[in-house]
Amino acid sequence: DALTLTGVSAAETIIDASGLVTDRALDIVSGAGPVMLSDLAIVNGYIDGDGGAVRNADASLALSDIDIRDNEATSGGGVYVASGSVTLSSGQIAGNTAGKGGGRYVETGSADLSGGQLSTNMATDGGGVYVEAAGATFTQTGVSTVTLNTADYGAGFFVYSGTVTLSDGSI
């Protein structure tokens, strides 16, 4: 079934995972229908695993006017894409931390940045984005920015395998 979560604004509607001790804010499981998150913030997720704020197992996830910040994970501090797809059309994924993929980690699915920004994320590999497997893809288009991310290897992008396509936007 489809799920839509729409807040008032990212400044006013905040999903704060700090009370969860050690867990991500949202876990979108395999078999879920399309998921749309808009006009909200997801903050303070922490997990010794994948996806500090959001882990997408196999759904179509759309993010609009969203603020995913201050989350931490082993992989995908902001968003972890196991499979399925994630599109950020506006808003930001910023200030997240991970060993791999401070902002986004794409295992075998696809991630699109068609608007908004990935900024100030930190990781050992792939401060902004980490692309893992041969079938994984990341595409940047539109008015989008990957900036001010830090990493030992690949501040903006780290591609282990898979494909990164930069059609527009700025790095």
Q: How does this model look, in words?
A:
This protein is mainly β. Helices cover 0% and strands 58% of the residues. It contains no helices and 20 strands. It has strands at residues 3-6, 14-16, 26-28, 35-43, 46-50, 54-56, 59-69, 72-75, 79-81, 84-88, 91-94, 97-100, 104-106, 110-119, 122-125, 129-131, 137-147, 150-153, 157-159, 163-166. Strands 1, 2, 4, 7, 10, 11, 14, 17 and 20 form a 9-stranded parallel sheet that branches. The radius of gyration is 14 Å and the shape is globular. The termini are far apart.
Structure keywords:
171 residues, mainly beta, nine-stranded parallel sheet, six-stranded parallel sheet, 20 strands, 0% helix, globular
Strand content: over 45%
Summarize the amount of helix as a percent range.
under 10%
Which radius of gyration do the C-alpha atoms yield? 14 Å
Estimated structural class: mainly beta
Average pLDDT score = 96
Order of helices and strands: EEEEEEEEEEEEEEEEEEEE
Note the overall shape.
globular
In angstroms, what separates the terminal alpha carbons? 36 Å
What are the low-pLDDT stretches, counting only 5+ consecutive residues below 50?
A: none
User: How many strand units?
Assistant: 20
Number of H/I helices: 0
Main beta sheet: strand number and arrangement? 9 strands, parallel
Short structural summary:
The chain is mainly beta.
List the helices and strands and how they pair.
Elements lengths: L2 E4 L7 E3 L9 E3 L6 E9 L2 E5 L3 E3 L2 E11 L2 E4 L3 E3 L2 E5 L2 E4 L2 E4 L3 E3 L3 E10 L2 E4 L3 E3 L5 E11 L2 E4 L3 E3 L3 E4 L5
Parallel strand pairs: 1-4, 2-4, 3-6, 4-7, 5-8, 6-9, 7-10, 7-11, 8-12, 9-13, 10-14, 11-14, 12-15, 13-16, 14-17, 15-18, 16-19, 17-20
